Amino acid sequence: MKKKVFLTRTLHDFALKELKKRYQIKIHSGKIPIPKTKLRSKIKEVDGLICFPYDKIDKEIIDCAKNLKAISTYSVGFDHIDTEYAKEKKIRVGYTPEVLTDATADLAFSLLLDISRRVSEGDKIIRDGKWKEIYGAFDYVGVDLQGKTMGILGLGRIGSTLAKRAKAFDMKIIYHNRKHVSKTREKSLNAKYVSFEELIIESDFISIHVPHTKETDQLFDMKILKKMKKTAFLINTSRGKVINEKDLVTALKKKTISGAGLDVFETEPINKKHPFVKLPNIVLAPHIGSSTKETRIKMAEITVENLNLGMKGKKPIYSVGH
Ligand code: DGY
After folding, report:
1. How far apart are CA 136 and CA 146, in angstroms?
2. What pLDDT is recorded for position 322?
3. Closest ligand 1 atom to Cα of 104
4. So what CATH class is 101-284?
5. How confident is the model at residue 159 (pLDDT cuts 50, 70, 90)?
6. Which are the catalytic amino acids?
7. Lowest mean pLDDT among 56-65, 131-140, 169-178, 224-233
8. 53 C-alpha to center of ligand 1: Å?
9. Distance from the CA of 68 to the center of ligand 1, in angstroms?
10. Where in the chain is the domain with CATH 3.40.50.720?
11. Residue owning the nearest CA to atom 3 of ligand 1
12. How remote is the C-alpha of 280 from its chain's centroid?
C-alpha cells in the first residue's frame, strides 16, 4: 500500500506526477491558507506533508499526525514550522535554499532600483493621466546608486548575492551579521563588517536578509527608523514581521526616511485598505522574491526530493535540524 502525502496547495504537474508514482496524494484545494481545523484532520493519517510558508506547522498540528515522517516546505524560510518539536518527534524537515538565491537577490535589487528612480510612482502617474508637462529640471528626480552605501543585514546566501549586484553598481558595501563572514568572502564582495548601529546610521540603502525569529521580531521600529538617514531607503524581501509596519507608515509619512521597497508583510496578502497603499514613497510587491519560472520549477524539484528522502528516514538534500 502506497504511503500517504498531503499537499496544502498544488505544485507543478511534473512534481505531482513524481509524487503519484510513489504515494497516494491528496491536495488541498479550498481556501488558502488551509484552515487549521482542516489541516488538523488531514494530517492525522499522512506519512508526508508538503507545505508553504504561510502554513503554521506548530506543536498542535504535529501532535495530530500519527505517522508523519517528513515535512517538506516549498520555501527557504522555515519560521512557520516548529522544527525543534519536529526533530523531537523524529520528523525530517526539508526546505529550498540556494535555488532561489539569485531570484530573491534580483527582486531585492529591483525594489531598490524602483524606489530610488521612482519607476512605479511614474507608472502610476501616467496611468492616472497625471503626466502633464514634459521634461522639467526637477521632475520626478530620484537618486544615484554609484558611491552610495548599501547596508546589508544578514550576509548569507541572498545577502551576498545582493552584494554582488550592489558592487556592480559601484556601491560601497557594509554588512552586519551575527558573525563576520570569511575574509575571502569580504574581499570578493568588497564588504565591510560593521555593528548593527553603524549599519543603521551609515547606510543609504538597507536590505534585510535575516529570518524572522524572537530576536528579529519588529526589529525595525520607530527607534531604529529614526536613527536611519533621512535620505535612506529600506528594502525587505525576508519576512514582514521584522518590520513594525505601523512605525514604518509613520516614518514614511513624516519623511523620517525617504522610502521603502517591500515584498513581504506582517500579514499577507495585504489589500487596498492597507496604509502602505496610499503612500507614494513605497514600492510594494506581492511576496514574489523567488517567483521566476525557472526558480519555482527548481523549488518544486527540491521539495519533492526532500520529501522522498525524509520519507525514507534519510536526511533531505536541504535539511533543517537533522
Ligand atoms: C521563501 O522561500 O521563504 C520565500 O519567502 C518565498 O518566496
Report:
1. 23
2. 66
3. 7
4. alpha beta
5. very high
6. 239, 268, 287
7. 131-140
8. 7
9. 23
10. 3-97+294-320, 101-284
11. 77
12. 23
pTM recorded for the entire structure: 0.96
The amino acid present at 92, given as its one-letter code, is R
Ligand 1 mean position, distance from CA 156 (Å): 15
| Four-way CATH pick for 3-97+294-320: 3.30.460.80, 3.40.50.720, 3.90.660.10, 3.30.530.20 | 3.40.50.720
pLDDT at residue 163, as a whole number? 98
**pLDDT, mean of residues 167-194:** 97
Cell digits of residue 106: 534580483
pLDDT digits over 217-276, tens only?
Answer: 999 999 999 999 999 999 999 999 999 999 999 999 999 999 999 999 999 999 999 999
**The pLDDT of residue 321:** 76
Q: Is 8 in the pocket of ligand 1 (CB under 6 A)?
A: no
Q: What is the pLDDT of residue 200?
A: 98
97 within ligand 1 shell (Cβ under 6 A): no
